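Good morning C.,

I know you're traveling, so I'll keep this short. The sequence:
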Amino acid sequence: MNTVSVNKFRDNLKNFVEQVAHEHLPLKVTRRSGGDFVVISAEDWGREQETLYVLQNSRLMMQIADSSKTHVTRSGYTPTDGETNEILGV
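The tokens, ready to paste straight into the viewer:
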């Protein structure tokens, strides 16, 4: 994560916002008095919130772990050709 002072951030606000939005990299803004903050795009924020939701949901995490086990042993559900075509939009 790149870091910039609040003064530099303020002077180049538009450029930094464009950079964060297009490169999908958060930007840490530091202040002399403390209370640093991070600038992140709305798209990336939403993705982070979804990830946190999954990680905090023990039921979903158990389903992921079970799916991982069946994937490794190839003992999980195998879709039919028709189902695969539907999923892939063929």
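Safe travels,
E.
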